[in-house]
Amino acid sequence: MKEVIYETLKNLHFTEYEAKAYLTLLEESPLTGYAVAKNSGVPRSRIYEVLDSLALRGDILVSPGSTPQYTPVPAKELIKNRRREAEENFELAEKSLAEFERSANDRENIWNITGSSEILDKVKECICSAKKRILLEVWGEEYEALEHELRQAAKKGVDIIIISYGEITSDFAHVYHHYMGDEITEEYGGRWIVISSDDTEVVAGIVSLGKDSRAAWTRHVGLVMPITEFIIHDLYLMEIMEKHRGLLEESFGDNLIHLRHKFSMHPDFKKHYIK
């Protein structure tokens, strides 16, 4: 009979010695450590290590004194505790595995977002989840909607770097003012937003068309890496223009107009965003 119970207790994560000590205490208690070793067959050299493990786990109780006495938690309470722990572990496993699975899917997918408010809501989520760095290209209109979340992120120690199209004033972020925000709005017929959060997820798209605004959100490394680098290269250009504007405009025209003509998406250099 005892051998069957030993195996049952092992299934509840008892070692062989722990099972023998616990069962001995169920038969008779309280007992000293010496008595538990004698009655259970657990070596005296190991008995206190075994009893300490049982007590730490809450399977037995210890009465302090010059010679400690040990008594078991009743069998029904032991089973109740184990059942509760198992249910908690299953719930945790279910939640964590689901989150991992969802995260794994997110890393492979590109999600479409429609509507300016929906896009901004997703950007806010990226801001709130950031732990290290946020890179953001934004116009003043959208910045106002995001300022609270950005400020809270900064308070958590997140480094926030903004390329602003138009005037943006911030006492918590590094702000680079793009030298031709109005011209870009005219040329492209709308305002875009691009954010990279911790270099692991991005949102990018047109945000000034109301319900017809379109953006993409992804953790796919094939897009996160180049979009993040796109923002970084804009930062390079901001630094270079600040220090060498005269020389660059001498070669490429005011606000680098010749380069923009050369590489524009549209031959006539003017457009309205096609929905």
TrEMBL record:
Keywords: Coiled coil. Residues 76-103 form a coiled coil. Residues 110-170 form the Transcription regulator TrmB C-terminal domain. SUPFAM superfamilies: Phospholipase D/nuclease, Winged helix' DNA-binding domain. The keyword Transcription does not apply. Residues 9-75 form the Transcription regulator TrmB N-terminal domain. InterPro entries: TrmB-like (IPR051797), Tscrpt_reg_TrmB_C (IPR021586), Tscrpt_reg_TrmB_N (IPR002831), WH-like_DNA-bd_sf (IPR036388), WH_DNA-bd_sf (IPR036390). The keyword Flavoprotein does not apply. PANTHER family: HTH-TYPE TRANSCRIPTIONAL REGULATOR TRMBL2. This is TrmB family transcriptional regulator.
